Hints:
Layout: E1 3-8, E2 14-18, E3 21-23, E4 26-37, E5 40-48, E6 52-57, H1 62-85
Antiparallel strand pairs: 1-2, 2-4, 3-4, 4-5, 5-6
Amino acid sequence: MAMYPLSILEDKTQIMYSNLREVGGVKNVSIHFERPTKDGFDSVRCELPSYEWTIWEGKYTDEEMEVFEHMVRDGAHVFYELAEMGGYDLYGSPKAAVLWWPII
């Protein structure tokens, strides 16, 4: 599975999304959130279309997880569109559509 960078939040959390994968006739995309810490990384991944959260490492708070859930649900169609394009070149591809979401 390939992962592509999308955005970096104020707290240095990087949002990445996977290439589009078809499993059992269902289109799947993984959305990954990760930020560096002094001990390694905080990371969590959401699988679409199930909205199942996996790979929860580190110390994201419940409040941060609620923000991520909101971002994934509201942006699912964008993640699918970008994944269908096969990612983009962060340095100038015309397919790039970098988004920025502040954590409140």
